[in-house]
Amino acid sequence: MKHLLAALPMLAAAGLAQADSECGTVTIADMNWNSATLIANVDRFILEHGYGCDAELIPGDTVPTGTSMIEKGKPDVVPELWTNAIKDAIEKGVAENRLRIAGKAFADGGEEGFWVPKYLVDQDPSLATIEGIKTNAKLFENPEDPDTSAFIGCPAGWTCQITAGHNFEALKLAEAGFELVDPGSSAGLSGTIARAYERQQPWFGYYWAPTAVLGKYDMVKVDFGTGVDEAYFLSCTTQETCPPTQATMWPSLPVHTVTTADFASKAPRAYEYLSMRSFTNDQMNQLLAWMEENQADGDIAMEHFLTQYESLWSAWVSESVAAKVKQALARL
Description:
Structural class: alpha+beta
Number of strands: 11
CATH architecture of the largest domain: 3-Layer(aba) Sandwich
CATH class of the largest domain: Alpha Beta
Largest sheet: 3 strands, antiparallel
Oligomer: single chain
Number of domains: 2
Helix content: 40-55%
Order of helices and strands: HEHEHEHEEHHEEHEHEHEHEHHHHHH
């Protein structure tokens, strides 16, 4: 009995090592935007060093990657998939037991809304509401036309141009003196926020998260007082030809981590990590701001995250896995 008890820890360790080795080769989609490439690199490092996977990054994009997973079973993992873009295909893949939704890449989901700088709300808390904005419309002077107030909209051609425009109309912002200003591009839109912040000037407009901009600049999402009517949002707010009769806040966009069913079956411990790994928008905003300021790619951002946010990622894994990851970090 004494010899048996002594052998138990070694048997348990052997079992864990075997579970790690069963992970085998894992292909991870590395999408071509900063948050996705950061998460992909974090997953690669943790799966390789914490779970013994032979992890490999491959280029990816939303629709072709999702289609490839369903039809060919590769890649094994998509760390950040905006599933609304291929909702029907993903649901079909899950129903046919080809795919598994491991969890939420972003705990808050994708976030959209009308925003103002926090320094304005600090001065006047009513500016966190649409009624306060309308009452103080003259505060947001339009530099192109001082007789009107500026609402900075979404760039032309984007879906949010429709949704922001419909909410602008339904909230009767034109009647309050606002003009909907096209920023021209994503860079033009973020540039207006940067200039306002540098000069501590009023700003009111559309933006979304997670983004580097909301990591660099402290903004407050304006409350419409309407709540979220998802059915109306989908049936009318998103439809260009639908006359908007009511305003609604944006529903959260689902952003998931998706794997093949085969990967989930062969590597349950690694899959469990992916089901635990999730970022809030505030956390990702900060990381994206750091990437932009340091011109960091996904690999460099991964090292920054794992060394500076240990309390966050270590909660996603067991103590033994965390120890292996930290040992690997020390060798970098």
